[in-house]
Amino acid sequence: FELAKKEALQILDKCKIPINNDRETLVQIARTSLRTKLSIENADILTDVYFVDAILALNEPGKPTDLNMVEIIEMQHRTEGDSRLVRGVVLDHVNAGFFYKNAEERDRLVTSERKFIDDRVQKIVELKRKVCSGDDKNKTFVIVNQKGIDPFSLDILAKDRILASRRAKRRNMERITLACGGEAMNSIENLTKDCLGFAEDVLGEEKFTFIEDCKNPKSVTVLLKGSTKYILNQLKDALRDGLRSITNAVEDGCVIPGGDASEIAAHHAFTQYKEQVKGRVRLGVQAFAEALLIIPKAIAQNAGHDQHEYTTSKIPVGIDITTGEAMEPKSFGIYDNYRVKKQLIHSSTSIATNLILVDEILRAGLSSLRPGGQ
């Protein structure tokens, strides 16, 4: 099996198709992944809407893509086609409160911290007046705080046209700096104009706050919409797989023809390669070649076609499940990830070898229990 694995990896390298990360090719890769999990209509709509743009926004040459910077927000209303990509951050708010032991403790804390809080609020107001002056006086100034903001401070900020969002999640605080720029400040003393970020639109709602149209965002949000929880979960699973598929293609810099073209090509190569080896090695190569045809056979059978027709085909191409005819995956824009196929070959070979070793161990154990080791 190890000899067959090395040969299979060489065949896989010959099947590689280099890509230049152009949008059209990445859309085809995402569409191939989504159509295995969603209907064709929904897969095409969602692919064109946000999949590729989300990865291209995060991609930096020479650096791995962090998919954690793609936030997924579920909204149970409207239809799947209303899902969209937000080039920024969507803050989902939570209901939280601060509880005191008794009324006396509340009064003491309110009295001692009132002046301290007022001073901090006043510094924010002064910075806003300094930044939003002259031609920029109509701009909106937004404060996002990870902890709570008392109603009195909110009132002071609102009078100066400052939108304050409180109790933001920690991961959203990290994503805001990547999407809008600026810095997360722990102290008011060092607050300057250079610490601020920029966003074109900030739309406040009852449960969500949208921060959109950021300049060169390195964190984006996908809004998934659907009529039921089941549809939302299905879209979310497909979204994660599609994003991973595009990321793999971008990092590999190449793809493999889909429709099981690589398996069929490897099978035909192994039929010639097994004539060059002898003994037990030939049996292993033959078993490996037959195992590669399991997936093409399953695809043909599930599509209602004759699976034996493809085992005798001499053309190393994919299977068109609609017509049942052989097709060239590249012309149809059907691609698989190189690293996925490579890992599949490594894993399947290791698992098969371990299973055979288990049989040998059991056989050796039974022989030792017999009289005379027979």
UniProtKB/TrEMBL annotation:
It comes from the Eukaryota. The keyword DNA-binding does not apply. This is Chaperonin. Belongs to the TCP-1 chaperonin family. Coiled coil: none annotated. The lineage of its organism: Eukaryota, Metazoa, Spiralia, Gnathifera, Rotifera. Keywords: ATP-binding, Chaperone, Nucleotide-binding. GO terms for molecular function: ATP binding; ATP-dependent protein folding chaperone.
